[in-house]
Structures are given as structure tokens and as C-alpha cells.
Amino acid sequence: MRTDHTAGEDTPTAALLRECAAKAVDALLAELRRRPIVQPEWLSLQEAAIYCDSEQQFSDFVKRRIAPPSVLFFRNACRFKRSAVDAWCAAGGPSQFTKKQ
């Protein structure tokens, strides 16, 4: 059964509910701040390009076969393992494939 209350009226039940909700939100936010941000292990072409900060050129690296090793996911969709992208970037990225004179 529902009872109507006036707008400014504060019942003990309403105050208790507000207090419980505020504590629940505080606990949830504290837990979210405590957890590290989860990074995916596999990256799409676009995600790998953003991760390497080379959005314009990364697909060209794939076409020239100088991109990090990838796994063909579906037709033309490939996935790059984050550790392989990290190693590729640490080794110099595309500059490791330039001809030395």
C-alpha cells in the first residue's frame, strides 16, 4: 500500500534509504578506484594503431608487412597481441626495417 507524502516531508525510512544508497555508492566507487584498469591482451588494427600513436600509417605498415606479427581473425580482420606490439615498438617500430647503408 502506498501513502502520499508532501514534498518537504522527510520520513525515517526515506532518510535511511538515502543513507544506505550513499554508502553503497561510496563503497562501489572506492572499489572501482582500487582496481587497476584492465587492458585487453589482443588489439584490433585500429586499437593497435591508437596504442602505437600511428593511426594514419599503421594499416600501411600491415600492407608493407612491417607491422608486428598478427593473427588473422576473420577475413581481413587481424588481431595483434599487446606484448608483440610492445616488443615491435621497443625495437624501433617501422624504422627497424629501413635499409642500412
Q: Which tags fit this structure?
A:
single chain, about 100 residues, alpha+beta, three-stranded antiparallel beta sheet, rod-shaped
Question: Can you walk through the features of this model?
Answer:
It is a single chain. With 101 residues, this protein is α+β, with helices and mostly antiparallel strands. The chain has a domain at 42-96. 46% of the residues lie in helices and 12% in strands. It is built from four helices and three strands. It has helices at residues 12-34, 45-52, 58-63, 82-90; strands at 42-43, 70-74, 77-81. A three-stranded antiparallel sheet has the order 1-3-2. The model has no long low-confidence stretch (mean pLDDT 81).
Q: Summary?
A:
The chain has 4 helices and 3 strands, in the order H-E-H-H-E-E-H. The chain is an alpha+beta fold and 101 residues long.
- Give the count of helical stretches: 4
- In what order do the strands lie side by side in the largest sheet? 1-3-2
Q: Tell me the series of helices and strands, N- to C-terminal.
A: HEHHEEH
Helix content: 40-55%
Mean pLDDT: 81
Please summarize the sheet with the most strands: 3 strands, antiparallel
Shape: rod-shaped
- Distance, first to last CA: 87 Å
Per DSSP E runs of 2 or more residues, the count of β-strands stands at: 3
> How big a fraction of the residues is strand?
5-15%
Tell me the structural class: alpha+beta
